[in-house]
Write a structure and sequence with these properties.
single chain; 185 residues; alpha+beta; seven-stranded mixed sheet; 9 strands
């Protein structure tokens, strides 16, 4: 983990945002795909962040620090609002933490391989139980037994990961669930 933390903080964008979150004492979390891809050795400039809703004003500090502007995607009333920033070969998605903490937020996500978070303020990792093990074993597994019912398109994401993440396999329970619920997609 020390190696991964070092790689995160060597990234100029992440270092800038880590310093900003420490200066302003804001819990900004790097989540999901960037960390997954970093662990797999496939660096990317596609960043996903989670931020406590009460720290929404931090978004303007991020814009100022990066000299770029976010635009909104999704619906605020459905809690699907994402702040997105796209510039050259880089994209940033920022969402508000759902639930009381980052740990509860991670439990609402799709697959364990996407449930690792890194606090840029505290430099600590958070994850759903089994996330590191699933990454090591290259297994695509649902976070909960409700993940597919909450969003049936997750079945297609699972298949996309199966096709694009080298050496990964579907968890047998997820494979069975996709087979049973394929009409929902």
């Amino acid at each position: 983990l020390k190696d991964i933390k070092q790689k995160i903080l060597e990234d100029p964008i992440l270092l800038r945002l880590a310093n900003l979150s420490k200066e302003q004492n804001v819990s900004l979390f790097l989540v999901g795909g960037f960390l997954r891809d970093l662990l797999l050795g496939t660096p990317t400039k596609d960043y996903d962040f989670a931020l406590p809703r009460e720290d929404a004003s931090f978004i303007s500090s991020m814009e100022e620090s990066l000299c770029l502007r976010f635009f909104k995607v999704g619906k605020e009333e459905r809690e699907t609002l994402t702040y997105r920033l796209v510039h050259q070969d880089m994209s940033i998605d920022l969402t508000f933490i759902q639930g009381e903490s980052i740990d509860l937020d991670l439990l609402r996500r799709d697959f364990t391989i996407n449930t690792i978070a890194f606090s840029l303020r505290d430099e600590t990792f958070h994850q759903v139980e089994g996330a590191w093990e699933d990454m090591r074993r290259k297994v695509i597994r649902s976070v909960s037994k409700y993940a597919i019912d909450q969003d049936p398109l997750r079945m297609l994401r699972a298949i996309r990961y199966l096709c694009t993440l080298d050496g990964f396999v579907l968890d047998p329970e997820l494979m069975q669930e996709i087979s049973e619920k394929r009409a929902l997609a």
